[in-house]
Amino acid sequence: MAVAMWAEKYRPSTLSEIKNQTEIVNRLRKFAETRAMPHCLFAGPPGTGKTTAALCLAHDLFGQRYMDVFMELNASDERGIDVIRTTVKEFARIATISGAPFKILVLDEADNMTADAQNALRRTMERYTETCRFILCCNYSGKIIEPIQSRCAVFRFTPLSEDDVAEYLQQIAKRENVKCTEDGIKAVIEVAEGDLRKAINTLQAAASLKKIVNEDSVHLVVGRAKPKDVKEMLELAFNGDFLKAREKLRLMLVEYGLSGTDIVKQIHSEIFRMTIPEKNKIALVDAVGEVDYRLVEGANEEVQLSALLARLALVAERVNQK
Amino acid sequence: MHVPWTVKYRPRRLSEIAGNQDAVKTLSDWVKSWDRKVPSKKALLLHGPPGTGKTVSVEALADEYGYDLVEINASDSRTGDAIRRIAGMATGQAMFFGKKRIVLLDEIDGINLREDTGAIDAIVETIEKTNYPVILTANDAWDPKIRSLREVCQLVEYERLDMRDVLPYLKRIAVAECKEIDERAIKLIIERDEGDMRSIVNDLQALSSGRKKVTYDDVAGLAWKDRKEDTKEALKTMFSAKNCLYAKKVVDIVDIDHEMLFEWIYENAPRQLTDPVDRANAMKYLAKADIYLRIAKRENIWKFLAYVFDLMTAGVALSRERTEPSSIPMRFPERISLMSRTRRIRGIQARVGSKIGRRCHISSRSAVKYYLPYLRIIFENNYEAAAGLSRYFGFDEEDISYLAGDENSTRKIERISTRLTS
After folding, report:
1. A chain contacts of residue B270, beta-carbon cutoff 8 Å
2. ipTM confidence
3. Nearby residues of A161 by Cβ (< 8 Å), 6 or more positions away
4. Residue A187, exposed/middle/buried by CB under 10 A (0-12, 13-18, 19+)?
5. Would A304 be classed as within a structural domain?
């Protein structure tokens, strides 16, 4: 059996195969049945089926050869006004010849587009509505400009329930001949937090370690996939070695390609495990929140996070003095 | 982030290197000769003035012919033991995937003999034991302290670049950056920087920052001194300033653009202000300055630059309340050097990301985030699955050794990051 990325191999190809997001799927199936659809905005956290739903909808609308009238663009790789002006327009403006009523263009990670690019997109969407429908996928609908939101049917994807994740995992394990203990599956579900892609990737990585996927192998994966560096960095800052801590931060951003937001999230979860006065904890959460907010606004990751590290070092210094 | 042109336009192939064609050919012939047999001298010493392309030609050679470049900054690894440990890995047995390597010991005349005890001996030892080409670079091959190295190396001289070498290269940059630069202006820069390509490109960038056109008068009107030293001096003044206006002067004195100045201050503020309170305050102001800088750039609201300047200069300088004045030396922004050192690794990462993205309906950036950590685990532990996935994604050897986390590459980055640039 050829090796593949399981998350891809077992991606549903028709709407009927999608087990979760029932309400959304039902609405999308109506689109397929009537062969008509509006522009759509799929919003929701990673691994909840936005791209899958778009692919399945296209498949159900146009059949096996849907790729002829379907285009997928990743806004964060190919963003910018130029792409909207050229690629998107070229695709959108030419009517289909294959008998399909319209084309579908999926713009993934649309919340990474600048406001200018979104405005350019909005005009394109209006102009070529006859020939092309847009599906925009994003994590936060708030980062999509209002005029686009008002032109789209908005679908909110939610994290998968534990039962749904378990069902997918067991099905894959069976097809791949992977033995899983109950603990193992449970551990995967816990770390995945409703993110099916994360769940399947964790399962596949754990299965590559040992013959049997159990709690241990899953924890091994989780430990490796989430480098301890964040903790080490915090310890350095706490011990007053700010420069080393900043170096570590720099390494994570550059080498591991970790995003600043990921690091912020981990720092946040560490705060409540720290042995500092409760009052300090909440002040730190305030500071962490501020950094997260600034990152969303496009501030520089290293500069913002190292300012936070300096602040942490200061708190530690004061606690130690007492 | 501010990308220096020296990084952006760094040659990636041997044919792109300006000047010193004979030296470059000797270098590449010698390295390739290792495929047939080990040459009598197992190390090359590339020597010549700064900015003549010594390091760049080794990097381009590695890039073009697919060598793994193991870099050791000799002036930074400090002790003989450190060099031995790193060099030992580099000269030991072949890697799992059998990729060829070049060991580069950069700037060996920067070794501080008093601190770096045994460093020279360790390098000589490395050369004796090596199974891979070892390349050393130095400004002055005749420095007495590296005499014993000279004896075990074949010497290759890099000469100062002249007008013919540099001119076409600079013109290409000007075109790529949409800058109109008077040829006489370019010539004057080349002349004043005495054929040091790094300085020439830096000067060209500084001069054309914020303008579309650079004329002869722009260049002639500049007081010409060593920029790096100037910057360090100006920063010293700034960090000891006791009032705002005095601290803000640094912006006018230095000859680098404001983003580069920010990088300099960001690098040095926590080094200069060692008291935790002072440091946290300085970093707080820098973080604020960063925000205004982004807004200024993104929304073209340039009035925000005023706050950027104030906060990053006066804000930082006046954060000094408890830290005693000191003579800690100013350092070149490490972020900038790290970006240039890790360019190759980041390139591989982006390529791996886009290969994953193509199959998994995801952007390459998200692929790095959502798939890479798991692929690494699989590649490190299960060679069979790794091979299968390599076929699935179309990974080449370089991608694979990146994912398999060959020890060298991780340590390489660690080492690189701790390195300073002179």
Report:
1. 242-243, 246, 306, 310
2. 0.84
3. A20, A194
4. buried
5. yes
B-chain CB neighbours of A108 within 8 Å are 361-363
State which of B299, B316, B338 marks the end of a domain: B338
Are B374 and A317 inside 8 Å of each other by CB? Answer: no
Cα–chain center distance at A215: 25
Confirm or reject contact between A201 and chain B (CB < 8 A): yes
Phi, psi of A108 (to 5 degrees): -80, 155
pLDDT of residue B89: 63
Which pLDDT band, with edges at 50, 70 and 90, does B78 fall under? low
Q: Which stretches within A20-80 are classed as H helix?
A: 22-34, 50-62
pLDDT in tens, B295-318: 887 777 888 999 999 999 999 999
A304 interface with B at CB cutoff 8 Å: yes
Report CB contact under 8 Å: A247, B418.
yes
Q: Which domain-ending residue is among B316, B338, B360?
A: B338
Tokens of B341: 């050192």
Q: Which member of A7, A243, A298 has the closest CB to residue B360?
A: A7
Are residues A262 and A124 part of one domain? no
**A30: domain range?**
6-156
Burial of B224 by CB count in 10 Å (0-12 exposed, 13-18 middle, 19+ buried)? Answer: middle
Q: How confident is the model at residue B281 (pLDDT cuts 50, 70, 90)?
A: very high
